[in-house]
Amino acid sequence: MKTKLKTNDQVVVISGADRGKRGKILAVSAKNDKVIVEGVNKKNKYIKATQENPKGGMITREYPVNLSNVMYFCDKCKKGVRVQKVISDGKDKGRTCNKCGKSIDK
pTM to 2 decimals? Predict the structure, then answer.
């Protein structure tokens, strides 16, 4: 699935356990339809003891969220909105908010 969201976009989670949380996209996997959002879908990962980490232990990290569960957060509209691509004269001019028309790409 082709996505209009990119790394460092502010998004809001629209469904699931973390509904309503906002964060920045850290990574996008269009192949798997997943995104990793900062501070969302955090889980504990248990680390085996190694030479670098002799005690082993537990770390908390963000896990992927399905792409359909996040929307771009528009600063002007103050809510999650759809994103549209603007094309004029056959050239891609960037992305805009579908509600207010504010340009996303600067």
Answer: 0.83
